[in-house]
Every structure is written in C-alpha cells, then in structure tokens.
Amino acid sequence: MTPRLPNPHKFAPEGVKAMIALETSIMNSGLEHPLIELVKLRASQINGCAFCLNMHATDARKHGEKQVRLDLLAAWREAPVYTARERAALAWTEALTLLPQNGASDADYAQVTAVFSEAEQVHLTLLIGAINTWNRLQVGFRVLPAVDPADVAA
Predict the structure, then answer these.
(1) Which of 1, 32, 94, 113 is the most buried (most CB within 10 A)?
(2) Are 44 and 53 contacting, i.e. CB atoms less than 8 angstroms apart?
(3) Residue 113: CB partners within 8 Å, gap ≥ 6?
C-alpha cells in the first residue's frame, strides 16, 4: 500500500489540536482505560485501520491488557472475557460505527443506559466519534502503521 499523505496531521494542526483536546477530555472522563482501548480497537477493526489497530493494541498491552481479550475482540459476543459494561460499550461502538447500516437501536441504547451514567454515555459516544474520525484520517490517507522493519513482509 502506498501512502497518499504520510502525515496528514501537519496540514491541519488546529484540527488535530482540537482532536487531541477531545481525547484528553475522554481520558479524564472517568471511563476505564481498558474499556477505552477496547472501543478504539473494535471501531478500528470495523474500519480496517491498520495504523490505529497497531497503536491501540500496543497501548493496551503496555497497560496490562490480556492478549486473549485482544485476540477475541472481533468475536466479543461469543467470548466470555468481557464484562457487561464492556459488552454494552462494544455494542454501542458497533451501532455508531455502522450507523448507516444499523442505526442506533433502542436495544443497543438500553444496554448502555443499564451500565453507564448519563455523563458516561456522552463520553463514550464522543470516544466512538473520535476514533472513527482518526480511523478515517489514517485509512483515507493510507497512513502506514509503525512496525518493526523486520516484521515487514517481503
């Protein structure tokens, strides 16, 4: 894959600064770091964002996330390693990431309201919107993931 624009962030510094401020707000919202990383990873899986998958899986592992939870994330509905709160967040992530196909159903929203406060619901929704924006930047401009050169296929 050939990058279209290897570093799109340098062309919109104020927009990127605003996105980073949003990310900081979300990180300080009280949502659990493991949940935040799972949401970012699940949206990035759906959107096919290699850059974000690599970054957030690496970050999750650095913060102690178990590999089995990362390995099973694409099949989270069938995997017994996620809490009810994480399941609600992942369902909401899929609903909002695939909004044109599925809409934000009452059933998905009911899961969220059962385990997240109103403020947490808003922060979770902002998180989902933010990672989808980052995914679109990276995928749209074909930004390559930072990988060890030894891992690059010949």
Answers:
(1) 94
(2) yes
(3) 121
